[in-house]
């Protein structure tokens, strides 16, 4: 079974993908993403791999016959891809060269543009899950890309907020947010010519940093090659900073927010950014999303953002010193 089911209370689609339960357990001494597996080229730097068990498909099956006048279903149309960061099975992002990271950003851009050519796809979501704490069972460095036939609810909310702000003030909500953080400074971790990494005023996670483009760009396709390279280095240094925080490979969910595709033009009001959701609230404690966060989306951060921002700045300084 692979289909979309409409959630009438939240006005959102839910992907039902029961066939993914049949995914086989990988042998401990074999990885499909490693050269020699027969699944990937013998030589590659970065590589796009079509998901073997996709939740979305460009040729989806008909939904189950369970819809009626109240319950709505739709085909699970879309695309699911895996993006391999390196042929090295245990290589981490901070271990990759700047040139290698630039190839990764180029591949993200290439796939973003390839997926947007399908007019049935309305949102291209580039993301990475890292670490057992977020449920990852495949240690080989990789991320994923989902092409949805709908705009996910969180993006809908961001679009409504940023669109309303632009209509009222004639300015970008994200640009003003970045300016406010730069003016305040205490939550800014580091920045370069093209990107700023900061812990937002409202962060829901203790170490939930954001990466904002310094200039107003709505999606990856608008970046110059210089900006692509800067993004590559910024992502690498952000992960290196997180790894230096407590001295181990830090788990996280990295979520890239581009403007929707094949829909209304929101270039003026929407702004490219990346959100990190690391589940740790200390070196050995996980911040669980319990009833308040999950049941009513009322988040509670158990730390003070200004204090954890200082921790992150110190971790960033340790990481940068380790590169010398």
Automatic annotation (TrEMBL):
Keyword Cytoplasm attached: no
Swiss-Prot/TrEMBL catalytic activity: alpha-D-galactose 1-phosphate + UDP-alpha-D-glucose = alpha-D-glucose 1-phosphate + UDP-alpha-D-galactose
EC assignment: 2.7.7.12
Cofactor: Zn(2+)
Any GO BP annotation: galactose catabolic process via UDP-galactose, Leloir pathway
Family stated for the protein in its record: Belongs to the galactose-1-phosphate uridylyltransferase type 1 family.
Protein name (record): Galactose-1-phosphate uridylyltransferase
Organism of provenance: Anaerotruncus colihominis DSM 17241
């Amino acid at each position: 079974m692979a289909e979309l089911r409409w959630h009438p209370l939240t006005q959102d689609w839910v992907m039902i993908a029961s066939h993914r339960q049949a995914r086989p357990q990988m042998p401990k001494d074999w990885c499909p993403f490693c050269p020699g597996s027969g699944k990937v080229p013998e030589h590659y730097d970065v590589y796009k791999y079509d998901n073997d068990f996709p939740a979305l498909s460009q040729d989806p099956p008909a939904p189950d016959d369970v819809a009626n006048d109240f319950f709505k279903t739709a085909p699970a149309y879309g695309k699911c891809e895996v993006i391999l960061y390196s042929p090295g099975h245990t290589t981490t992002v901070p271990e990759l060269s700047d040139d290698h990271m630039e190839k990764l950003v180029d591949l993200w851009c290439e796939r973003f543009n390839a997926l947007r050519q399908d007019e049935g796809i309305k949102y291209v979501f580039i993301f990475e899950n890292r670490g057992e704490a977020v449920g990852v069972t495949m240690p080989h460095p990789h991320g994923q890309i989902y092409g949805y036939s709908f705009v996910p609810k969180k993006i809908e909310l961001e679009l409504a907020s940023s669109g309303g702000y632009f209509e009222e003030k004639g300015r970008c909500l994200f640009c003003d947010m970045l300016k406010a953080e730069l003016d305040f400074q205490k939550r800014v971790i580091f920045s370069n010519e093209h990107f700023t990494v900061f812990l937002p005023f409202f962060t829901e996670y203790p170490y939930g940093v954001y990466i904002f483009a310094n200039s107003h760009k709505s999606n990856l396709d608008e970046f110059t090659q210089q900006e692509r390279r800067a993004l590559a280095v910024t992502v690498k240094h952000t992960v290196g900073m997180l790894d230096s925080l407590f001295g181990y490979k830090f788990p996280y969910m990295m979520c890239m927010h581009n403007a929707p595709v094949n829909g209304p033009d929101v270039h003026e009001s929407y702004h490219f950014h990346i959100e990190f959701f690391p589940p740790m609230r200390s070196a050995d404690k996980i911040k669980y999303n319990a009833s308040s966060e999950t049941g009513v989306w009322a988040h509670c951060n158990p730390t003070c953002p200004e204090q954890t921002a200082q921790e992150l700045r110190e971790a960033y300084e340790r990481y940068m010193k380790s590169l010398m």
